[in-house]
């Protein structure tokens, strides 16, 4: 097993390149030098910060809050029907007309509510010198928001332009998928509206 440490100054996907291996006797009488091609690419992920909250998703929320957990049946918006009352059901959920017909308390039941889906749209040209240029700051911000969204239970979709102006989409990634995808993002001078329109259509009303 050979381990090599390199310090990366820019994010991106880089070819593995070649590694020079040297071996010799203790006194230097015999020396062997070999160049080995490394086929595996090296992916340098963008810088990101561990956000404590992000008000657009949940006001004054933290990753450990129970607000991000899946809500119990009865807390959603989609009406499913009625069921018998159980101790602890809120009084406002009582369906009085059905209760009168049944002769006992009956409550409304709603579909289980899941965390809202988040779409992140990344586009723009670059100004300045990486890794501190404007587009790199956008990539870093997108990574930070995406990681926070995943930590708090929100499914994430990512949208960007490819090298030829095609739309590049990544659906339901985990944290490593997000960072690898953003590592390959490149600035592209194109309108933001087509990407946002596609993202909004993909999200639906719960995004």
Structure report:
This protein is α+β, with helices and mostly antiparallel strands. Helices cover 22% and strands 23% of the residues. It has helices at residues 96-102, 134-151, 175-183, 193-203, and strands at 12-14, 18-24, 31-37, 42-44, 79-84, 106-110, 118-122, 156-161, 167-171. The chain has a three-stranded mixed β-sheet, sandwiched between helices. β2 and β3 form a beta hairpin. α2 (134-151) runs antiparallel to α3 (175-183). The protein is elongated, with a radius of gyration of 26 Å. It starts with 11 loop residues before the first strand and ends with a helix.
- The helix-and-strand class reads alpha+beta
Report the uncertain regions: 59-75
C-alpha Rg, in Å? 26 Å
Average pLDDT confidence is 82
Helix content: 10-25%
Q: What is the H/E string?
A: EEEEEHEEHEEHH
Total number of helical segments? 4
* Overall form: elongated
Strand order of the largest sheet: 7-8-9
Strand portion, in percent? 15-25%
Task: Give a count of the beta strands, DSSP E runs of length 2 or more.
Answer: 9
* Main pleated-sheet profile: 3 strands, mixed
N-end to C-end Cα span: 46 Å
Task: Pick out its properties.
elongated; two-stranded antiparallel ribbon; three-stranded mixed β-sheet; alpha+beta; single chain; 207 residues
Layout of strands and helices, then pairs:
Layout: E1 12-14, E2 18-24, E3 31-37, E4 42-44, E5 79-84, H1 96-102, E6 106-110, E7 118-122, H2 134-151, E8 156-161, E9 167-171, H3 175-183, H4 193-203
Parallel strand pairs: 7-8
Antiparallel strand pairs: 1-4, 2-3, 5-6, 8-9
Helix pairs in contact: 2-3
């Amino acid at each position: 097993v050979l381990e090599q440490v390199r310090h990366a100054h820019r994010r991106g996907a880089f070819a593995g390149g070649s590694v020079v291996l040297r071996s010799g006797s203790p006194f230097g009488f015999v020396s062997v030098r070999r160049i080995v091609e490394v086929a595996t690419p090296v992916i340098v992920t963008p810088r990101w910060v561990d956000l404590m909250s992000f008000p657009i998703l949940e006001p004054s929320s933290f990753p450990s809050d129970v607000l991000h957990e899946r809500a119990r049946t009865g807390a959603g918006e989609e009406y499913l029907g009625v069921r018998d009352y159980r101790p602890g059901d809120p009084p406002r959920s009582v369906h009085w007309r059905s209760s009168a017909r049944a002769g006992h308390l009956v409550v409304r039941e709603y579909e289980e509510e899941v965390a809202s889906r988040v779409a992140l749209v990344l586009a723009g040209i670059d100004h300045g010198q990486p890794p501190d240029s404007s587009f790199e700051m956008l990539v870093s911000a997108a990574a930070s928001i995406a990681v926070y969204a995943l930590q708090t239970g929100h499914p994430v979709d990512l949208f960007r332009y490819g090298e030829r102006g095609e739309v590049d989409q990544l659906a339901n990634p985990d944290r490593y998928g997000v960072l690898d995808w953003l590592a390959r993002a490149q600035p592209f001078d194109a309108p933001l509206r087509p990407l946002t329109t596609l993202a909004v259509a993909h999200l639906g009303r719960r995004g």
